[in-house]
C-alpha cells in the first residue's frame, strides 16, 4: 500500500480489470487492476478511477505515481514485478467473493444472487431453503432458526449432503424422481432419522439436470402455495445455475481477457507474454472451435463451457502457456512458443479435441487451424485465418471437422473474391446483370446451365449429368445465354468474369 488518502477502512465491493486504452468503467467501491500500463503511464487510469469513486487501484511500478493517487483521493496498491495478474485477481476476488457469499448487509439480507433467491423462496414457502448442485454441494441457503433438522444442519456445516443421508435419499428414489423432470418431490417426516418433512424440485436446462432446491418444514407448516412457489423457483433458478457452472474461475477469467485483448489488438504482445510466461519472439498459432447453433441457448452455453474446459486441458498439456477464451460464440486457443514444423502435431491435437468433444458432449464440433505466425504480436492474423476457415466450413465446403487454411484455401479465396465483388457493384459487367434479370423472368434455366458448363471446364456431357438434362439442351442454353447477354465465352477473361459474377 503506497497511498491511502481515505484511510484503511475503505470498503471494497468488487474487483475489476482495466486496460488504459479502454474507456473508464469503474464504479464506487471497485478495486481496479490496471494491467496494461505501469508507472507514470497509468496516471490517466488512476485519475479516472478516482473520479468514479473507486476504492483503490493496483499497478506495477506504483512508486512513480504516489502523488497522482493522493491528488485523486484514491488508494494505491503496488503489485510486485514478478507477480502475475491472474494470481493477484484470484487472491483479491476470492476475498471479496467469500465476504459477499457469507456476509450480511445492514438490512440482514444475505448477499449474493443465490443466497438472496434462497431467502426469497423461504419467504414464499414458509420453510428453510437450500440450493444444491448435482453433486449435492450446497451453493446457497436461507437464514434459519432453531428448527433446523439434522440433515440440513450437517449439509450446511459440511457444504454438502452427508453421505449416510444421501444414500437413504437414493434408496427411496428421491434423486431419480428429481432428475426425471419438472415436478415436486415430497419427503415425509422421519423423526427416527432426524429428518423433518420437506419438498424438493429439480432444476433443469432442457433435459440436463443442474441441481435441486430443498425446502424443509420448520416450526410452522409450509404455506398453501409452497409447491407452486417451489416449481416457479426451480424454473427461475436455471439461468443462475447455468451461470454458476459456466463462469470461469478468476484465474481463467483473466487469462481469457488477456487472450481476447491480444486477438482484438487491445493489448500488446509483450504485456500478455509477461503475464502468461511466453516468449513474444517465438512462433504462435491460434485454433478456433465452433458449435452448431441448432440447440437451445442454455444448452449451447453449457456445452460451450464444457468445451472450454476440455480445450484448456488438452492445450495446456501441449503448451503450458496456452490461453483459451470465448469470443463472439467461438472458442479460441492460443498456442505460443511453438517449435519449427509445429502444424502436424497441432493438427493431431485439434483432431483429438474434436473427437473427445463429440464423444462426451454429444454435439458436432468443428476446429480450424490458423497459420503459424513468426511472433506473438501476429496472433490476430492467425485468428483471422482460423475464422476464414471456419466460415468456409460452415458454408458446406469440405466434410472434415478439422481443417487448416491449406485444406480449404481455394474455397476461402473464392468466397473473399465474391465478397469483394458483392461490395463493388461498379466493377461488375452489366451484361451479366442483365442476363440474371432476364433469366429470372424466363424460368431461371440459362444461368445454371452456363455455371454448370463453366464448372465442367466446357465438358457438355459432364454438365448435362450435373443438371440431369440432355447434352444438346446444355448446348442450346449456353448458346442462348451468350445471345441474350452478348458475352463471348470463348474469351478467357470474359469466361472467368462470367463464372465469378454468376456465382455471386
From TrEMBL:
The record ties this protein, via InterPro entries, to:
CdaR-like_regulators, CdaR_GGDEF, PucR_C-HTH_dom, PucR_C-HTH_sf
Organism's domain of life? Bacteria
Ranges of residues in domain PucR C-terminal helix-turn-helix = 446-503
CdaR GGDEF-like domain sequence ranges: 268-391
Which ranges of the sequence are coiled-coil? none
The family assignment reads: Belongs to the CdaR family.
What's this protein's name?
Answer: Transcriptional regulator
Identify the species of origin: Amycolatopsis regifaucium
Amino acid at each position: 500500500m503506497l497511498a491511502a488518502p481515505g484511510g484503511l477502512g475503505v470498503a471494497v465491493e468488487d474487483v475489476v480489470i482495466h486496460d488504459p486504452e479502454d474507456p473508464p468503467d469503474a464504479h464506487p467501491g471497485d478495486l481496479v487492476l490496471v494491467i496494461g500500463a505501469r508507472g507514470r503511464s497509468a496516471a490517466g487510469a488512476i485519475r479516472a478511477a478516482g473520479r468514479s469513486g473507486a476504492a483503490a487501484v493496483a499497478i506495477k511500478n506504483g512508486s512513480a505515481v504516489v502523488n497522482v493517487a493522493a491528488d485523486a483521493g484514491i488508494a494505491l496498491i503496488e503489485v510486485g514485478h514478478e507477480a502475475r495478474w491472474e494470481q493477484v485477481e484470484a487472491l483479491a476476488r476470492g476475498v471479496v467473493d467469500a465476504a459477499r457469499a457469507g456476509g450480511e448487509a445492514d438490512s440482514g439480507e444475505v448477499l449474493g444472487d443465490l443466497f438472496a433467491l434462497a431467502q426469497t423462496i423461504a419467504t414464499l414457502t414458509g420453510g428453510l431453503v437450500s440450493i444444491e448442485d448435482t453433486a449435492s454441494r450446497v451453493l446457497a441457503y436461507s437464514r434459519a432458526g432453531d428448527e433446523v433438522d439434522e440433515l440440513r444442519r450437517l449439509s450446511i456445516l459440511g457444504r454438502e449432503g452427508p453421505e449416510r443421508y444421501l444414500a437413504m435419499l437414493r434408496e427411496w428414489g428421491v434423486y431419480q424422481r428429481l432428475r426425471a423432470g419438472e415436478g415436486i418431490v415430497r419427503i415425509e417426516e422421519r423423526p427416527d432419522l432426524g429428518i423433518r418433512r420437506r419438498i424438493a424440485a429439480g432444476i433443469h436446462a432442457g433435459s440436463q439436470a443442474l441441481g435441486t432446491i430443498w425446502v424443509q418444514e420448520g416450526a410452522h407448516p409450509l404455506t398453501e402455495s409452497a409447491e407452486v412457489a417451489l416449481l416457479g423457483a426451480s424454473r427461475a433458478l436455471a439461468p443462475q445455475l447455468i451461470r454458476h457452472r459456466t463462469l470461469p474461475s478468476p484465474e481463467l477469467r483473466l487469462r481469457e481477457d488477456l487472450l481476447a485483448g491480444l486477438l482484438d489488438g487491445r493489448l500488446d504482445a509483450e504485456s500478455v507474454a509477461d503475464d502468461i510466461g511466453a516468449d513474444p519472439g517465438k512462433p504462435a498459432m491460434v485454433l478456433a472451435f465452433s458449435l452448431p447453433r441448432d440447440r437451445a441457448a442454455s444448452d449451447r452455453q453449457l456445452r460451450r463451457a464444457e468445451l472450454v474446459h476440455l480445450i484448456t486441458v488438452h492445450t495446456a498439456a501441449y503448451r503450458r502457456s496456452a490461453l483459451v477464451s470465448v469470443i463472439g460464440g467461438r472458442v479460441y486457443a492460443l498456442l505460443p512458443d511453438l517449435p519449427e514444423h509445429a502444424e502436424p502435431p497441432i493438427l493431431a491435437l485439434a483432431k483429438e479435441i474434436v473427437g473427445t468433444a463429440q464423444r462426451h458432449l454429444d454435439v458436432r464440433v468443428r476446429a480450424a487451424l490458423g497459420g503459424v505466425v513468426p511472433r506473438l504480436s501476429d496472433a490476430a492474423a492467425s485468428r483471422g485465418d482460423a475464422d476464414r476457415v471456419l466460415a468456409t466450413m460452415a458454408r458446406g465446403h469440405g466434410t472434415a471437422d478439422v481443417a487448416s487454411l491449406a485444406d480449404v484455401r481455394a474455397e476461402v479465396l473464392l468466397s473473399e473474391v465474391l465478397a469483394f465483388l458483392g461490395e463493388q457493384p461498379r466493377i461488375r459487367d452489366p451484361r451479366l446483370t442483365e442476363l440474371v434479370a432476364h433469366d429470372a423472368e424466363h424460368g431461371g434455366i440459362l444461368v445454371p446451365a452456363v455455371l454448370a458448363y463453366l464448372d465442367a471446364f466446357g465438358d457438355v456431357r459432364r454438365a448435362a449429368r450435373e443438371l440431369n438434362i440432355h447434352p444438346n439442351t446444355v448446348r442450346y442454353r449456353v448458346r442462348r445465354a451468350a445471345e441474350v447477354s452478348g458475352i463471348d465465352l470463348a474469351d478467357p477473361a470474359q469466361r472467368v468474369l462470367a463464372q465469378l459474377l454468376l456465382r455471386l
